[in-house]
Design a protein that fits this description.
alpha/beta
Length: 266
């Protein structure tokens, strides 16, 4: 379906009323919406086809650039000057490119059943870290992500930006009963907890000795507290990254990336 491209000359235009709230995550969640910003992310949002895009707000330059990669607008497109966009949104780091999309129904846990190489995130609230974990998970070919309560929203604007759009393409499930969900998935995959706590195997040692076949769900927790005792008790194996004396931990995205590189399926 072809959609109109409409020029906006007044920041008070009612067609753009929703864009005045894009800095308010609570307002967006209440309306089942999220925001994508930047050319690359918006292009990936459109290309993924997973979420219904309600509209785009672009500068003329951005619209021309995207038109070269999108045959037809997947939604109504509003064109405005950068000044008008900043007046409406209240910030200027959107690169002249915004889209409002609908979250749609949350995926059920069963949607991860077919995954053989997945990431579990417990208590990682920082949106940059959440986005970085999704970006890293996609880079290492993961099939999906399970997030526990207390983890950040992958569809929060900053998390999407940090993920470079990976959160728009990689299936994810948020579970308020994280331990129960892990116990369910444990029937088909091995739960591997990444932790600096002893006892644990060095991740490279586990890679050499792990059973062949089957799937893996790599578990990571927030910097500082790490994975909860309950989640650690559910893990089939605990692995760690050997560090030099005096260094107690790594950023969760860096640590997860090291573990993913070591444990990804051949």
């Amino acid at each position: 379906m072809s959609h109109a491209v409409e020029q906006i000359s007044d920041p008070a235009d009612p067609r753009l009323a929703d864009y005045a709230h894009i800095g308010d995550p609570g307002w967006l969640r209440d309306r089942d919406l999220f925001v994508a910003e930047g050319r690359l992310v918006v292009e990936r949002l459109a290309g993924a086809g997973r979420f219904r895009i309600r509209s785009m707000l672009l500068t003329q330059t951005t619209q021309q650039a995207l038109a070269e990669r999108m045959a037809a607008p997947p939604c109504p497109v509003f064109l405005a000057s950068r000044q008008i966009m900043e007046t409406i949104t209240g910030f200027s780091f959107h690169q002249g490119c915004l889209a409002l999309a609908e979250r749609g129904p949350a995926l059920p846990l069963s949607s991860l059943d077919a995954g053989r190489w997945m990431l579990g995130i417990e208590g990682v609230g920082n949106p940059d870290n959440v986005g970085g974990l999704f970006r890293t998970a996609e880079a290492f070919g993961m099939d999906g992500v399970l997030l526990g309560a207390g983890s950040g929203d992958p569809l929060y604007r900053k998390a999407i930006r940090a993920s470079m759009g990976a959160a728009l393409r990689l299936p994810f499930v948020t579970s308020d009963a994280f331990a129960d969900s892990l116990a369910e998935l444990r029937r088909t995959v091995t739960l591997v907890a990444l932790t600096p706590q002893s006892p644990s195997l060095a991740v490279e040692d586990y890679r050499r000795t792990r059973p062949t076949g089957g799937g893996t769900l790599l578990l990571v927790g927030a910097e500082g507290p790490g994975l909860s005792a309950q989640v650690l008790s559910l893990a089939d194996v605990r692995v760690s990254i050997p560090l030099l004396h005096g260094v107690d931990s790594l950023n969760v995205v860096v640590a997860a990336g090291i573990a993913m590189a070591a444990l990804r399926p051949a």
